[in-house]
Amino acid sequence: GVKLLLNGLCSNTTVKSLDLKGNNLRIIGAEALGKLLRQNQSIRSLILEWNSLGVWEEGFSFFCQGLAANSFLQRLDLRNNQINHQGAGELAVALKQNASLQEMDLRWNNIGLLGGRALLNCLHSNKTLRKLELAGNNVPSDILKAVEQALDHNQDRQTILSETHSRTRVLSKEVLSLKNEKAKQFLDLMDTIDKQREEIARSSRMSTARVRQLQEALDEQHSIMNSLKAKLQMTEAALALSEQKVHNLGELLSAMKQEQTSVAERHLKELQQQKQEGVDREGKLFRELSAVSEKNLLLRNQVDELEKKCKVQQDQLFQVKQDLTNTTAELKLRAVQAEERIEVEKRKFKQSLEDMECLRLKEVDRMTQHVEASERSLQERIQRLEAMRIALEEELSKVRAAALTERGQAEEELIKVRNQARLEEQQRLEHLQEKLRLMTESRDEAQNCYLRQKQVVSEVQAKANQLSLHADGLRRQIEELQQDLNIKEQEKVTEVNKVKVELQEQIGHLQAERTAQEGLREKIAALERQLKALSSNHREALLDKEGEISMLLERLRMKEAEISRIREEEAQRASFLQNAIMAYVQGSPLGPHNPRK
């Protein structure tokens, strides 16, 4: 019935706890249990109390093989199963291969000294077993203490592993969030830079269109000048009025020149201020980079100091190991002579080990606190760098807004100048029309003054030539202004590119710092692993040496028992000899002659 039940449970996926207490399972039941443990993946708790599985060695070995192949069982109860030291050895072999069992109850069996040693040795390779009950098995107290220490070590190791896993998850999440944020910020910067390029291209197009309009207006003015020259030739009487108008035009041109020179000076001053601001920003960035590099050097020095401390601790542990080997050799030599000395040395050795463990725990706590402080400082530095980057972005936005406002002001000034020129030209045309009316009325009077005013006409022509030359000079000045505008735009583009390059360099530095931080964290994790490995090796060595001490004590006890047995045998022999001698004396011929006498 048990075989059928267990075969049915091999393919079951819902049962998590199985209680078979007090069912008198035999070889067939043990083999079925081994098969169940190999195939089932859902049972987490198995109770087999009061079943005498240890009596059937073959079936129990098959059960242990199934336990070794299982990777899902967490609790096993084997109380009162008559398990001897051989069964405990098979259980130890199974526990070396098992990686899921956490609790096992072996109370009230016949494990003995050899079985306790086998279970203690298996705990060196098994790192998952947390609880092992061995009461009522005739196991020495030294082995029980060693088993408890190994189980405590397994619990500490699992807690440390869980903490490290949680920390690594949190750190990985933070790193991913930082990467995503920086990627978003970089994309935003690229978008803003592309928008600025588009705005600069639009402004350049608008400026070229405006320059073309100005050129067309100048061409129109030249055509008007030519028409005025023809009208001057046609109208000789209006020369005096034309001279006044020419003087007025000269004054307006001088005013325009002055305005252009003032505008050029303003642009130059603004460019110088922008250059100075760029130089100041570069200086600040270099200072910040130098400060960050110094902080990285300090962190590296701290890591080197930590590595040196770890090496010193390793040397100390090596010296402690050498001392332990020397003491064990002395104990082996002096074990036969005096048990009291061994106990005293054991106590001293245990006290020194406890002191060393306390010191090691204090150093580990101090190292963890130092590492947490360094991580906090690094996080604060990252936040400061991000704040600096945000400030730089705000300054860039301010500079762009200022440039846009300046462009808008320049465009408004150009529009105002154009409107003023158009109004003046309209006024001049109206005056000229009025003058033509007056000239038609004064033709008769001008014919008499024709000869006199020929000379004046020649002078006016010379002045007109001068005006044409002056207009050519104005054209050249406009072309130079256009070139200056183009140069300024190119300088702005170069400055934007420089800012981009600087931001990319800052991003590269931040990424390098992040990689350095990851390297530091990896080094810290490696150091912690080394410390854990050293502590585990130290504990294993202590357990081995305590086992050797217990072996020596057992040998001493065995020898004392043999000596006492020999003494008893000798006393028995002496008593037998005495009895034999007394019987011989009583049975000798001297005995019967005495009564006859």
Kindly describe this structure.
It is a single chain. This protein has a domain at 1-139: Leucine-rich repeat, LRR (right-handed beta-alpha superhelix). 85% of the residues lie in helices and 3% in strands. It has eleven helices and five strands. It has helices at 2-9, 27-39, 57-69, 85-97, 112-125, 141-234, 239-334, 339-441, 443-448, 450-587, 590-596, and strands at residues 17-19, 45-47, 75-77, 103-105, 131-133. A five-stranded parallel sheet has the order 1-2-3-4-5. Helix 4 links the parallel strand 3 and strand 4. Helix 3 (57-69) packs parallel to helix 4. The chain is rod-shaped, with a radius of gyration of 54 Å. InterPro entries: Centro_Cilium_Assembly, Leu-rich_rpt, LRR_dom_sf.
Question: What descriptive keywords fit this protein?
Answer:
five-stranded parallel β-sheet, disordered C terminus, mainly alpha, 597 residues, rod-shaped, single chain, Leucine-rich repeat, LRR (right-handed beta-alpha superhelix)
Question: How is the secondary structure organized here?
Answer:
Layout: H1 2-9, E1 17-19, H2 27-39, E2 45-47, H3 57-69, E3 75-77, H4 85-97, E4 103-105, H5 112-125, E5 131-133, H6 141-234, H7 239-334, H8 339-441, H9 443-448, H10 450-587, H11 590-596
Parallel strand pairs: 1-2, 2-3, 3-4, 4-5
Main location: cytoplasm
Protein name: LRC45 protein
Keywords: Coiled coil, Cytoplasm, Cytoskeleton
